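I had to read the description of the data format several times before I understood it. Each protein is reduced to its one-letter sequence and a matching series of backbone shape codes. The format is easy to grasp once an entry is in front of the reader. For illustration, here is how one protein appears when written out as sequence plus structure tokens:
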Amino acid sequence: MKQVLVLSATMGEGHNATGRALAEAVHRRWPEAEIRWLDALDVMGPGVGPLFRQIYVTNVRRTPWLYELFYSLLWRSRWFAAACKRFTGAWCGRRLARIVGQPDLVLSTYPLGTAGLEWLRRHGRLPAPVGAWISDFAPHPFWVYGRVDLNLVMHPVAIPPAVRCVPGAPVAVSAPPVRAVFRPGDSAAVRRRLGLPPAAFVALVSCGSLGFGQVEAAARELLAAHPSVVPVVVCGRNERLARALRRLTDARLRVLGWTDEMPAYTVAADVVVTNAGGATGLEALACGRPVLMHRPIAAHGRANARLMAEAGLAVVCEADGELTRAVGHLVETPGAWKSLAEAAARHLESAGDLDVALSALLRQAACHRATAG
């Protein structure tokens, strides 16, 4: 029986969502495989997870300039990026060494975890194939490692920046790492089940499990776009955001908390509005839905937005009123952004599925072993 280790982290839900998609792919390939999960932040010690999550939330909400500074330093200073990766790699790697065991395959969805895996590789303590899934659309230097067998990016446009992070690193394109339930479907049937108006223009607003960013502003802009627009706003675990939105008086607005129906709402939507470009953007892509990036959050959110727009997979709305105008144009001219859906379909066809990415990882690992031998 194959033993597969998935190394993720609870930093919101995006990294775990990627891990679940990879676990599904493993079970399709090896139905009897035993999958073990580790949270990299828990591995790094008691209290590390809550501390890192608080730092991240504070940076995004209150000190985005500091988050931008750190992000830009990773790119501008190769020494700074290498030092950060060495430090976190040693921290995570030494603790992983006690518990990693002898898996047949290791799949990482979190950069600090991948840093620990590279530390194990550098010290000859991890012979199993290692794949690192870069679930942000835009790679940054903390995501990419030269000693893993394969770094998997989300689109061909992400290969050059990934290689620029670590020249010579093995990089390949993966299908979007989302669960199989995220796929094109019968929008009309799903709307009937969810109680959504069949003829409305449904805009799904989803900004992660933490409900980051200018979500209320997005809802207001959507309501102003056209009378036929029905915004469905998923607040995740952000109860304060849900309360604020429920105070809006427009009956068209649908406000949801945490829901397990995200695949259905994504299929039901005409467009998906988000601000980070991580799991939500990939799920929309997998369902063939156009993506609007509204006021992207600092650092990785803005980088993801730029690269998704470059790939023809998203339209970025940063200034006041841009989302209103963009959605109004979509309502009045339904085929205006047909190219977005077509680009998503072409990418899905060319990338195949996650089984293809797993096969590429195993081939790359075999080449490494042959070269080392």
Summary: The chain has two domains: 3-175+352-372, 187-349. The radius of gyration is 21 Å. The domain at 3-175+352-372 is CATH 3.40.50 (Rossmann fold).
